[in-house]
């Protein structure tokens, strides 16, 4: 007989996804077992120059490796699976998820040449897995990607319910409605803690059904006389299906453009998540074989990403697509915060080239994948949790979701707005924050994991503002005479051909400083360099009101 | 008798404000006369590293200096007056505008120490100035700054009507409603060309009256038990007045925080645009003398600008304001595109510190200053122009405004969606684009005007991505032996203390390249440097998948 009944507490430790959108990962620790829900990345913010992606710091999990039972993934979006290739390198444990989710994880691991060393397990919604002393149940939900699940963890202390990302869609494209009955059942059994998606907690009302987008698409397709180019998220399989349906209705062939669009549509077709009638799918290079009014192109770039297909089309740098006068471009997405300007640029560029561009402000060609306030209330009312912890959101979203829970009658002291790394410690009857574990961001730049830190980022920012000036001088070790230089090399500071005078002046200042140092018996190179930096910096600021980085280099021979 | 009747055409030459938001400036050229409307700057886009502001390139005006009659300013926003200190240095001609507008221009010229060399003329709305053969009429309009005007230029060929930025507000705070009667009168006389603000042309319906914000503010103030901190645009005098009114209603003292807030409120109070009851205005340093529920602080930073007061309050780096538990922060503005993330960060930081933060998604505490579609239709219906040219907007806004004009019955061939620099040539009966003049952006960085060009910007971007590696080597001129180095200095590439191995390898690669060159009788430094750059770049990319800038420097002694 195990000592299962002696364990009277359970720890919830979010390591990402709180106080931020993305990088979702939560550890649930019961005795000697840790269940990990999701393992995503986030995109760098604008101050993180040169960084490709940001993943969660999982030191706590590495330190508690022996307890880990596996990764349980709610759905296949990057902010839920994207960090797996990096994290699995440190803690390699089985990964569980639905078919489409696992297919996307698989494709990711193949890219990182890691598939053969990882264990992937496909589960079905409604499956309940016995994991050590715990039961992990996947429950169907709706979201902007097919095959999304909430996860309920049955513990001897009660049910821990994690919604994953979700919305309530009564008319989803695949007919698979969120399993509200099971939510209600679990609510009756007694939910100890609810963790729920807060992304849209600020937005009143309901998120519209995905189906409404199909109606708008049909209307638009009906009016188009030339090609239709639709940009959307590659992973939004239901959106792709609706674009295919509208195309078929109007006798259009479909071509996919963009690497992730090609990759994900292929996976979705192979697994039967995407249905394309025989002969409808054509290769992008064959679009010229058909009349313009018989062509639909589905492309990446709905967020104005610099290298994505639509951005290249807008910039006239796409290999096989040039905008023509009767093209209609539909941007079936809304810009996520931070992307408004690049998306606007794409719209303007396409418009200027003569395309008729349809975007969210003009037609309802997008719906969110996240629950708005009334949907959140429905979920709260079904699950009736004892304790509540809003997840997946910036602080403002979490706070707002907390207010909703309060309006629903939950006591404020039972609502926990916490931060990444906080330990929420639950017993059958109580919950409180009992400490903090190490958590943070790991920056990925090229193939380097975490080797770019604050010093490097600060330098990149500094360099980006006013550039760099390098001053090199060769000095004789014995006589301390200047043998060569000072030579001045600048980058990102000023256009040198037009500023020869300034460069000459910098050389002069450097010379003077070195002479002064030597004459005052300052012989430490570090001191001479410091003086050079100060004098040149002062001189340049006076002349230009700029602060370039200044690097003096002294070479001894 | 002048040959005025022989001039049968008039040229409209926008030099800024088309295909962009900001940097508004338009030249209207009739025979030997040029009238300039507005002279604004815009903010750099995210790729313009280190640039402070962007002003229009006015080479065309400099080349045609002898024709210029003056600058006619519609209102005092930076995107309409901000380039004056730079442009007046090149073409110093009289500036005309309403009282508040000219006070703001004056304050700007004082800052640039230029006031004594410039001629500023205060006019009243309804004034008609005889400028050479033309009459320039200022007509009152509504906007998010007091004292805004449209401008009608009476020419022998017909009226050229420029709306400036505007909205229609039937209940403006100062009671001064847009002079629709005069619009109608001019429409009856016959408007040859209408140029109208397109900023909100994508938005259906009407922009709400500024007064509605006052009602929301009153409601909010009624509920606040601690301090109220309101962030808004300093130039939105009417908003300031409403904040003052609400404060007074609830017996609160007012303190201003932020340099532009202090500067502009002082100007507005002195000129009587802002009415503050005796004893209500207090100094920021005195807020501690009153109970929290008797204090309103009005601050800059509604756009999350890094150095603005609210941003510093949020980051706990403001000298005299720390967030306390019962503070209410009202952000009475919406983020302009590109600022969503910084504004969100400010909201999250304030929320985390315990403030109750009210922003546009939660309460209606802001209205736009620009006309929406139905207002634009009203203006079109009153002015009934023969030709129409949408202005003030990105391409997508201009196109949408063009569609509105078409819906209003204007022939498509009478609508001109043109670009900065295009010459729209009008006769009494015709209009067409007859050519293009030089136009463009001048980047201001520190005290430099236009000395940062594409090469410098490209380098700054490059530097910001993966940093820079400088490799210095000293070579004997005679023997070609390496006397010192190669030494490696990196910035923004990698944290060197943790990567000594890599730096050693780079030195090794550099050494090998130099030796190989010398052994193969390559003696041209430029060739050796090119080889070093290539070899090191290849090596580093292989090791790190990064592309830092590589600068080899060879010093001869």
Automatic annotation (TrEMBL), chains A, B:
Cofactor binding description: Binds 1 Ca(2+) cation per subunit. Seen in 1 crystal structure, it is not clear if it is physiologically important.
Gene3D superfamilies linked to this entry: 3.10.20.580, Metallo-hydrolase/oxidoreductase (3.40.50.10710), Ribonuclease Z/Hydroxyacylglutathione hydrolase-like (3.60.15.10)
Documented EC number(s): 3.1.-.-
Domain Metallo-beta-lactamase: 22-217
Swiss-Prot/TrEMBL keywords: Calcium, Cytoplasm, Endonuclease, Exonuclease, Hydrolase, Metal-binding, Nuclease, RNA-binding, rRNA processing, Zinc
Stated role: An RNase that has 5'-3' exonuclease and possibly endonuclease activity. Involved in maturation of rRNA and in some organisms also mRNA maturation and/or decay.
Name used for this protein in its record: Ribonuclease J
Gene of this entry: rnj
